[in-house]
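Sequence, please.
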């Protein structure tokens, strides 16, 4: 889920069109209606689309309905609906911060949205609190085809200096750290650094050995190895003849014997 969440955040093209099931939209409307007791005023759906919210708004005498919809030329961020009392809808999550700012700017009594659980953060709740809105109600729900669980969040305009005391949940904005994970990541980082250094040194050493092998000449005393009956047998002696692929090495014991080896089998000079 964490990886999927990061992929959603980092995507280049947002997919914001997720139509709320009508029965969930009706539940959402009922929650706000019961909390607000609103029998008059303007209910505003800024993201009407097919009208799953708008068409089910309360129809009491004295209640007016207002709507916005980008696809129909009423961009929520620029359209002026006039005075509104309740905002109830399902917003585009990719511009959640802009939606919150615009919603607060309109100063309704209630702001209620259906949002993904990753969209409700301490900083966003604090932003509402600082603007005079408390988180009055939080409802968990699940739409099978959507990512993770969803929240119906309802914020109410309040009076007073410490609005946070009216929140239905508690929170803080401090970022906590797991020291064990920090140490583990530091160790992993150091291990990767050492591995890179070892690999780099090994590469340099191999290059040096390859260069040394290219520089072998007649008269050099060298260490070499050959394979005999499935085993690696080391040896040493003096090169008496050499070409691009093969070397003839005279044993240093003075018995006059020679060993023909591939240049690749010469390990180093003595």
């Amino acid at each position: 889920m964490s990886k999927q969440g990061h992929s959603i955040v980092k995507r280049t093209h947002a997919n914001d069109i997720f139509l709320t099931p009508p029965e969930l939209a009706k539940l959402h409307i009922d929650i706000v209606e019961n909390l607000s007791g609103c029998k008059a005023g303007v209910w505003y759906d800024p993201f009407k689309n097919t009208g799953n919210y708008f068409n089910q708004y309360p129809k009491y005498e004295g209640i007016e309905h207002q709507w916005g919809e980008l696809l129909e030329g009423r961009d929520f961020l620029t359209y002026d609906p006039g005075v509104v009392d309740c905002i109830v809808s399902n917003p585009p999550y990719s511009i959640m911060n802009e939606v919150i700012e615009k919603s607060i700017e309109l100063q309704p009594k209630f702001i209620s949205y259906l949002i993904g659980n990753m969209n409700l953060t301490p900083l966003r709740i604090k932003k509402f609190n600082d603007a005079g809105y408390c988180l009055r109600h939080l409802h968990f729900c699940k739409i099978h085809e959507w990512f993770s669980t969803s929240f119906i969040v309802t914020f109410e305009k309040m009076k007073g200096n410490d609005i946070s005391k009216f929140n239905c949940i508690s929170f803080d904005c401090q970022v906590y750290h797991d020291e064990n994970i920090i140490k583990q990541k530091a160790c992993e980082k150091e291990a990767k650094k050492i591995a890179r250094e070892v690999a780099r040194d090994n590469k340099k050493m191999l290059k040096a050995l390859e260069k040394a092998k290219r520089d072998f000449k007649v008269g050099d005393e060298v260490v070499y190895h050959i394979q005999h009956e499935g085993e690696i047998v080391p040896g040493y002696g003096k090169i008496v003849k050499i070409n691009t692929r093969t070397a003839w090495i005279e044993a240093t014991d003075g018995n006059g014997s020679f060993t023909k080896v591939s240049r690749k089998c010469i390990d180093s000079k003595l």
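The chain has two domains: 2-166, 215-270.
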